[in-house]
Design brief:
By secondary structure, this protein is mostly beta strands. The chain contains 1 helix and 7 strands, in the order E-E-E-E-E-E-E-H. It has one domain: OB fold (Dihydrolipoamide Acetyltransferase, E2P) (Beta Barrel).
């Protein structure tokens, strides 16, 4: 059994999915009504919204600062580590 969603015209996701892809929802989950945006190469454009932690790692003899970044349209559990100088670019 397939379901068809009514999505905005700018949505770049397929609007038909099979019911077997659904999973039971447990607990509280943040809900976002805004769809993520894509660049001209169809790459997901993520904007950082918060820095959750910081660490310093060694790369060779140089210390590198990394931050745990919470991205727009994701949950804090999906945060990823990124080097500060690359994030600033």
């Amino acid at each position: 059994m397939a379901h068809k969603l009514e999505l905005p015209a700018q949505a770049r996701i397929h609007n038909v999915f099979h019911i077997s892809l659904l999973k039971r929802h447990h607990g509280d989950c943040p809900v976002s009504t805004a769809l993520p945006s894509f660049d001209s190469n169809d790459q997901l454009e993520l904007m950082p919204i918060d820095i959750l932690a910081k660490r310093i790692k060694k790369r060779g003899s140089r210390p590198i600062t990394e931050v745990l970044t919470h991205w727009q349209h994701t949950t804090p559990e999906e945060a990823t580590w990124h080097e500060v100088h690359k994030l600033k670019q």
